[in-house]
Amino acid sequence: ELTRPEYDDSQWEKVDNPYLWGQQLGGEWWGLNGAVMYRRTVIIPDEWEGRDLRLRLGITDDRDDTYFNGERLGGTRGNRRERNYDIPGGLVRAGRNVVAVRIWSSQGEGGFRADPERMRIELPEPIRLYRSDWDYEYFFAGDEPYRFRKW
């Protein structure tokens, strides 16, 4: 299967990302609706082996299914939502790992809409706790509310 690390993708065309399909093809994107599979080999440092990680893809257009070492991490519909997936530590090994992303586009351009610096694998931030009587200036613009827990 295309998402498995052992799959031989050596004959695949290499593309720069993140780009929308039209940008990759010099502006010729009409009629390119459908699905495209992307694969990326990433090297995980020894000290991250077995640890939970977070994969950040930015935004894809329109829908994605995302895999890490052949295991599905999740999928998201809509071209305005950030793709952030948790990678369970049991899938993480030091050295070579494979991220595979299948993108579907039903209209317009498909592909990645992210800034390159937003596409990364990282250690997840610790969950921040807050009390409802604290000043809301504690939250900063662009923060992700799902990371907060009330106590």
Can you give a write-up of this model?
This protein is mainly beta. It has one helix at about 20-25; strands at about 35-45, 55-60, 65-70, 70-75, 80-85, 95-105, 110, 120, 130, 150. It has a four-stranded antiparallel β-sheet with strand order 1-6-3-4, with no helix packed on it. Strands 2, 5, 7 and 8 form a four-stranded antiparallel β-sheet that branches. Strands 9-10 form a two-stranded parallel sheet. About 20% of the residues are buried.
Task: Chart the SSEs and their pairings.
Blueprint: H1 21-24, E1 34-44, E2 53-61, E3 63-68, E4 71-77, E5 82-87, E6 95-105, E7 111-112, E8 120-122, E9 128-130, E10 148-150
Parallel strand pairs: 9-10
Antiparallel strand pairs: 1-6, 2-5, 2-7, 2-8, 3-4, 3-6
Give a short overview.
It is built from 1 helix and 10 strands.
Instruction: Give the overall average pLDDT.
Output: 79
Number of helices: 1
Largest sheet: 4 strands, antiparallel
Distance between the termini: 44 Å
The gross shape turns out to be globular
Uncertain segments are 135-142
- Our estimate of the beta-strand percent is 35-45%
| DSSP strand count | 10
Classify the secondary structure makeup into a structural class: mainly beta
What is the C-alpha radius of gyration, as a whole number of Å? 17 Å
Helix and strand run: HEEEEEEEEEE
Helix content: under 10%
How are the strands of the largest sheet arranged? 1-6-3-4
Features:
151 residues; mainly beta; 4-stranded antiparallel beta sheet; 3% helix
